[in-house]
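hiii, so i know i said id send this last week but things got crazy w the move. better late than never?? heres the sequnce for the chain we talked about at the cafe, plus the structure i predicted for it. fair warning i was half asleep when i ran it
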Amino acid sequence: MTSKTKAFKRHWRVRGLAGLCALAVAVGLSIVAAAPARAELRVDITRGEVKPMPIAVTRFAGEGVSETDVGQNITNVINSDLARSGLFKTIDEKAFIQSVSSLAVNPNFAEWRTIGAQALVNGRVLTEANGLLRVEFRLWDVLAENQMAGVAYRTQPGNWRRIAHKIADEIYKRITGESGYFDTRIVYVSESGPATRRIKRLAIMDQDGANHRFLTDGKFLVLSPRFSPTAQEVVYMSYFNDKPRVYVLDIDTGELELLGDFPGMTFAPRFSPDGNSVIMSQALDGNSEIYSLDLRTREKRQLTRHPAVDTSPSYSPDGSRIVFNSDRSGAQQLYVMNADGSGVQRISFGGGLYSTPVWSPRGDLIAFTKTQGGQFYIGVMRPDGSGERLLANGYLVEAPTWAPNGRVLMFDRQIPSKDGTKDRYRLFSIDLTGYNEREIVTPADGSDPAWSPLIP
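okay and structure toks below
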């Protein structure tokens, strides 16, 4: 351990990360005692349009050529994550006055205030004797002249991108007071080919579009992928040999499991919050009902019994209730029931048709797709149906999915072509406040995204 490392006050705690070793160090510096008393640096993300906070992320220093390259890559990912959130305005390093190397001691806060920075991030990368990569960073409140966070991670060199996302999550958490969402993945349906012979494959990528790969080969049409609570498995519907069935895929091993050979058509699957069961719809003899399947006992339980079409079920975060859409009132509306199927209550009463409801991870809102007057919308409402707000619209927007912190939504949008034969399908994210809509770039067309929980 070098003298620079010893400058940190050590309180070690081990973080279990899938496939990697990480080590975090909580640190504090004496400069805190000398700093003037000021209000804590904070971005209030509960308001509508937020003025981005200026933040300077200096290039992470490296002790060698490879570490220097990794440090630059980590800096780029952190900058990209923070800027894309819409809550931060990253400052171009060309404006920096103080050199990176001098930050190993203490920042010259007056110089960082001169260029408008309110927060400052610096760090370094080194390779330990055992070959593991060690990445350290500090977050500074430039106005209060104190350190807000200091963490060190130790990992295999190939995991540098995940470490960058975890650092961005830590910065987001310390400044907004809420959990970040950068160390997550997206599974979605990748679409290619002409409209009459569309190829639909499962694909997975980091939330920023990096590390993209296909999970299926396109021989069979796939729909509605959804993550398990551990982010390790995906449940989805596939037309294998023209039979629509629900499958569970282990992302790492590729192991595929058919969830029973039920008669009729099974679709719209989703894991329960504890991961022990899957809820889905089954269409039989022209009627669609909602069922749950216990993954341990394989016991299937029918939850709705109504001649209407009941589908798109989604659990509340505590697993006690289920939201779904049904046309039992004569048109598609949203309903909430207890997890055992009792106590069905309609919650949507606005004009238009409601579908694809998804309960927020925070439990306070339900996202939905709405169709009204020839327009399509992504909206949210409280679980009792009050407080409806429309966040995004377009020719065809649908399939909302929540980031694990319940502050950002992703959805797909169909972008029509002039002759209707070359429509494009794209993924977009938008803040819960209705601001900061951004496209998530995919190699081909994309639809039906599902956002993972934070990766363990």
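btw Helices lie at 3-6, 31-34, 65-84, 109-114, 160-176. thought thatd interest u
miss u guys!!
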